[in-house]
Design a protein that fits this description.
It is a single chain. 35% of the residues lie in helices and 18% in strands. It is globular. The longest helix has 13 residues.
Length: 194
């Protein structure tokens, strides 16, 4: 399914090492004709890291999409009743966010956006980025893999020798994942080597 004219939400959480790839994909989505809205978790909008300043990330998102990011739980809540988006991606999705989503916790703008969006039986896509995916978070990933209307960007071990529990999504597979998720299909294979 073509993304032209589709309303795509990109919800950013605190895996800052992936932000460069995320902003590249934001540009690709806009170039594909999608109407992109960004939602920032508390961490992603407040923490400066060695990968950049939070304020700069917020500005960059607005420059690329032409829309102010959603920064509060109150701002994200109308995504549900107004059926604002066609598809939502948590990109990147940290282990913390995976655990909260799998257990129904809604304490950040990103999690409220996900909860609000899912109530409309529309696709939610997870782009995993966590150092504990094959450890404590494997059970939560398993729950989400079996949940209705949740899809995954293909992922794999990014550094099995030094970070043997870490998984990260193949961000270059975002657009094909979205296109299939809009048709109710999970892109395959989900597990893909780097």
């Amino acid at each position: 399914m073509d993304l032209k004219g589709k309303k795509v939400g990109i919800a950013l959480t605190g895996s800052f090492c992936t932000f460069e790839k995320i902003f590249a994909e934001l540009k690709n989505l806009v170039e594909a004709g999608a109407e992109v809205t960004t939602i920032f978790s508390n961490a992603s909008q407040q923490i400066d890291s060695r990968f950049g300043k939070a304020e700069d990330f917020l500005k960059k998102a607005e420059e690329i999409t032409g829309q102010k990011p959603i920064l509060t739980i109150e701002g994200a809540e109308p995504i549900g009743p107004k059926s604002y988006l066609d598809i939502l991606v948590i990109f990147p999705c940290t282990g913390n966010t995976v655990a909260k989503l799998a257990n129904g916790i809604t304490d950040t703008p990103v999690l409220m956006a996900a909860k609000a969006h899912l109530r409309n039986n529309k696709p939610l896509v997870i782009s995993i980025s966590t150092n504990d995916a094959l450890g404590m978070n494997m059970k939560n990933i398993g729950l989400l893999l079996n949940a209705k209307n949740i899809y995954f960007v293909p992922f794999g071990q990014d550094n099995p020798e030094k970070k043997n529990n870490s998984l990260i999504a193949h961000t270059d597979r975002l657009i094909p994942t979205l296109e299939l998720a809009l048709e109710g299909k999970q892109i395959q294979p989900i597990l893909k080597e780097f």
